[in-house]
Design a protein that fits this description.
The chain is of the alpha/beta class. It has 2 domains: 12-16 and 130-197, 3-Layer(bba) Sandwich (FAD/NAD(P)-binding domain); 35-124, FAD/NAD(P)-binding domain (3-Layer(bba) Sandwich). Helix content is 22%, strand content 23%. The chain has helices spanning 39-42, 61-68, 130-133, 170-197; strands at residues 12-14, 35-36, 50-55, 73-78, 91-92, 97-102, 106-111, 115-117, 120-124, 139-140, 143-144, 157-159. The chain has a 5-stranded parallel β-sheet with strand order 2-9-3-4-5, with helices on one face. It is elongated and about 55 Å long. The mean pLDDT is 88.
Length: 198
Amino acid sequence: MSKKGQYEATSVIIATGVNFGKVLKGEKEFLGRGVGYCATCDAALYKDKVVTIISYSKEEENEANFLASIASKVYYVPMYKKDIDVGKSIEIVNDIPVEIKGNDFANELILKKSKIETDGIFILKESSDPGQLVPGLEIENNHIKVNRLMETNIRGCFAAGDIVGAPYQYVKAAGEGNIAALSAVSYVDNLKRNKSMQ
């Protein structure tokens, strides 16, 4: 799933670089239960509901405007200093998010000076914590854990480059990318071979 659509693949290589962004308290706990990272992808789930968007980039204003056409109310919490250009129905909240709370689902965003009762929270930023990219992915020291073939703990999922650990050098990343690509091709070939033998 991406901002531009949904893609299907037999194998995936994660090579997103390093993410040092701070995760909100409660963000991981409520991921998929009222917290998401793509407003346009999940907008239909929030028809006629109250939604909060925490945005780290001006480019995400389009997602807020799109969501406002579906949700009953949209709160927009900009984490950037540029001029904000969102629809008039969107309420801009100039405050700092601290924590996401809820029971079974997230229903409250705690900010430094206020709080917002909400049915869903979208955190729109350019990078995500490695453990949030793929559910069940094994993480070690905030990096994706891989073996020498760049295999993760999930079959068909490989990772390479800075996301798997230091040193953060392009030569290392390129070498690991090559190994990951060869491993992914081998994985897909083996699947095809096994399928044809059945």
